[in-house]
Design a protein that fits this description.
There is one protein chain. This protein has 139 residues and is of the alpha+beta class. It has a single domain, classed as RNA-binding S4 domain (Structural Genomics Hypothetical 15.5 Kd Protein In mrcA-pckA Intergenic Region, Chain A, Roll), CATH 3.10.290.10. It has six helices and five strands; from the N terminus they run αααββββαβαα. α2 crosses α3. The longest helix is centred in the last third of the chain and has 19 residues.
Length: 139
């Protein structure tokens, strides 16, 4: 408990806060995302050593989802997910964009042609002959 109080008074690095808030599984992954330009702190590109402040706006890429959050609390200790969710609040606009992206991905997955596996010998031969006919038509 004493360590948590000390980190709140001194401040916490951005990579450590992102790890504690459970956006990234490891601190090194959080650091890579920050250095790769996938995390913006108050609208500007940040360094992993940036001290996080309450009320700051953070835009980050988590998987394929872009999120924009507001920092509510500061902690450098990785606890349970229920505690980590109290450290931030996602903006309404970010939630709507993320839900729209999920909806579009689901619709796109419905359009994908699914096969039952690899073609058998007869189907492979038919494909080869079809390709040969196409090639001979262009010659």
């Amino acid at each position: 408990m004493k360590d948590q109080e000390n980190t709140e008074t001194k401040g916490v690095r951005l990579d450590k806060w992102l790890w504690a808030a459970r956006f990234y599984k490891t601190r090194s992954l959080a650091r890579q995302m920050i250095e790769g330009g996938k995390v913006d702190y108050n609208g500007t590109r940040a360094k992993p050593s940036k001290i996080v402040e309450v009320g700051a706006s953070i835009k980050l890429l988590q998987g394929n989802a872009r999120r924009e959050i507001i920092v509510l609390k500061i902690s450098g200790v990785r606890g349970p997910a229920s505690v980590a969710q109290t450290l931030y609040e996602e903006t309404l606009e970010s939630i709507q964009k993320r839900e729209e992206a999920i909806r579009l991905n689901k619709m796109a997955s419905l359009m994908v042609i699914r096969t039952e596996g690899k073609p058998n010998k007869k189907e492979r031969r038919a494909l080869l002959s079809f390709k040969e006919k196409l090639a001979s038509d262009f010659d």
